[in-house]
Amino acid sequence: MEMTKPTPTARFPYLKQDFAASLVVFLVALPLCLGVAVASGVPAELGLVTGIVGGIVTGLMPGSSLQVSGPAAGLTVLVFGAVSQFGLPALGVIVLATGLFQLGMGALGLGRWFRAISISVVEGMLAGIGLVIIAGQLYAALGIEAPESGIGKIVGLPEALVDTLGSATALPSLAIGAGTVAVVVLWKRMPKKVRAVPGALAAVLLATFASIAFSLPVATVEVRGLLGVIQPPGMEAFGGLGDPALIGAIVAFVLIASAESLFSAAAVDRLHDGPRTQYNKELIAQGAGNTVCGVLGALPMTAVIVRSSANVQAGARTKASRVLHGVWLLLFAALLPAALALIPIPALAGILVHAGWKLIPFHQVATLWRGNRGEALILVTTAVSIVAVNMFEGVLIGLALSVAKTAWEASHVRLEIVDDGTGPIQAHLSGNATFLRLPKILDSLEALPQDRPIELDLSGLSHVDHACRTALENWAERHTTAGTDPVRVLVA
């Protein structure tokens, strides 16, 4: 019997759709990879390295079939701070450790627990990052150095803008940055055929042509070559692991990169009807990608919702599209490195300003304020804390507020006093008696008459913590010594 060889179409039934989608994702990813790298204070090519690893390494692994990974705007603030504090060689160590932690957490089945993080904390984190990105990249658009702290960036903006008015070099730089933002915003109104080119790429290309055509005195991307920027961390870089500050940075990277990736996966799942994300496998895939990036001394990666949604909307059906997008990034970096040197830095700053603006969840804040002001307060407080302090501590403040709010809401307790005027006064407690409600409970009990017998009924309580139980026992002893009948405590 003659065996027929399977055709490429039969073996890869969605090759046409995935090929087309990969080109769209490549065009979306290219300016973002460069912009995130420059904003992070590292060579632009390192952004391409992370995009390549995110496409080829993470893209080949199971987890979320249509989600695309690469360098993310959400980590620029964290990366810039780490590079400034510990140096570029230490970045590889931080990213490598992040990847190993993610591999371990995925193997232990901890991926799904990241979904338990309050969405208000995550959105507050993104809002804070967005504000810092916008403020910092406005300085880059002006061609001047930004202050180190988030609050310093915002406070110093008015003076920086005023100084621009008298500068012959800052004005052209600002014009390129503002023009880039304008093109990205207005691109969605262009005819459908024109919009086949992603707005971010079109904006960077137009800015590059304008700077060349008019010989504008603006800074451009510094090119070192792909192999020139790949620097695996040496043994001296690993010596910094004894520094508690470096350990704190690793924890921050693990927490934020993992949460952002898995929240992105949940969002991407809502965009298509294909296979759902396997969260533990996706965390392992992110860990594998970050481990490789760490070995190469590149930027950390997360799943990126902009690239992922572009992938879905372009008609991708399998993981082949994201793998191919990584191949296109590799070919571009290998064959056209000189093209990077023509790109104006203010144009990349404009791309990041627009990306930072999109990170701020204006609609969610308004919705939460109408329906749940406590969650809105957590979101705003997290964002403000990140701007005023730093990324790690801001997120911890948000998490602490979220836990405190949940504990407060879970500790509902009701105290009912029944006094018929003749027998003992009956005090019925029901619900959850925790230390959070203890002051209110004790105030009500201590207000009871000292010359009457009392029955304290605890049978309606579903939970009594140690602090509350001890306080109730102490109150009963104090009341008993007042010369009345002992307080009678009834339990279930």
From TrEMBL:
Q: Does the keyword Transmembrane apply?
A: yes
A Pfam family hit: Sulfate_transp
Enumerate the UniProt keywords alphabetically.
Membrane, Transmembrane, Transmembrane helix
Q: Does the keyword Acyltransferase apply?
A: no
Q: Which GO terms describe its cellular component?
A: membrane
Major localization listed first in the record, in broad terms:
membrane
Any idea where the SLC26A/SulP transporter domain is? 15-382
Q: Where is the signal peptide?
A: none
Bilayer topology reads: Multi-pass membrane protein
Q: Tell me where the transmembrane regions lie.
A: 20-39, 46-66, 86-110, 122-144, 164-187, 199-219, 245-268, 327-357, 377-404
Record-linked InterPro entries: SLC26A/SulP_dom, SLC26A/SulP_fam
GO BP: transmembrane transport
- Compartments in which it is found: Membrane
By what name is this protein known? Answer: SulP family inorganic anion transporter
Q: Which organism is it from?
A: Streptomyces taklimakanensis
Organism phylogeny = Bacteria, Bacillati, Actinomycetota, Actinomycetes, Kitasatosporales
